[in-house]
Amino acid sequence: QVQLVESGGGLVQAGGSLRLSCAASGKAVTINNMAWYRQAPGKQREFVARIPNGGSTNYADSVKGRFTISRDNAKNTMYLQMSSLKPEDTAVYYCNAILTTPGRLYNLWGQGTQVTVSS
Is beta strand 10-13 parallel, antiparallel or unpaired with respect to 3-7? Predict the structure, then answer.
């Protein structure tokens, strides 16, 4: 079964840092585009950062210079290093990935991980 599993959320004070991870599992998986989204209470899910397979990264303006997205293809894992966190970064963070296995394309979401930034 192909799935994404997230980890790394938690409670942190403003100005602190957290690192989120998103691991893809499954046999013969090839991961193409990977991205992070977030959804704050009462708001729509919004884009945070994207990292294609071999392409350049891009970020939402609200996180540029504070968040860094990366991936380890050998481990089928994506990361989001979050620094200088603000209370407005509080949200459930979701990873998204476009993956293929022989004969099949997947557009998957992780289960979400809560990030809470206290002021």
Answer: unpaired
Q: Quote the pLDDT of residue 29.
A: 82
Q: What is the CA radius of gyration of the chain?
A: 14
Two tokens at 18?
A: 């957290």
Instruction: Report the share of the chain in percent with pLDDT over 90.
Output: 81
pLDDT value, residue 1: 82
Whole-number Å distance between alpha carbons of 21 and 14: 20
Of all helices (H) and strands (E), which one includes residue 63?
none
Closest CA to 28 of 95, 109, 104: 104
CB 97 within 8 A of CB 24: yes
Beta strands in the chain, from DSSP E residues, in sequence order: 3-7, 10-13, 18-25, 30-39, 46-51, 58-59, 67-72, 77-82, 91-101, 104-109, 113-118
The arithmetic mean of pLDDT across residues 56-74, rounded, is: 96
